Amino acid sequence: MIKKINTFLTEVRGELAKVSWSTREELMGSTAVVLVFTALMAIFIGMTDFVLSFVLKVIFR
Prior knowledge:
Order of helices and strands: HH
Largest sheet: none
Shape: elongated
C-alpha cells in the first residue's frame, strides 16, 4: 500500500512539473477582468430587478 502511495505522489509531482503556470501579471490581469465583469453584471441585474419590481408595483396597484 505504501509503495502505491509513493508511486502516485511521484507521478503527481511529475505531472505538475509539466503544467504551464501563469505568471503573476497574467493572474492579476485575469482577476481584474473577472472582478470588473462581476461588478457590471451585478449592476445590470440590480437595475433589471429594480425596473421589473417597479413595473409590477404599477401593474398590481
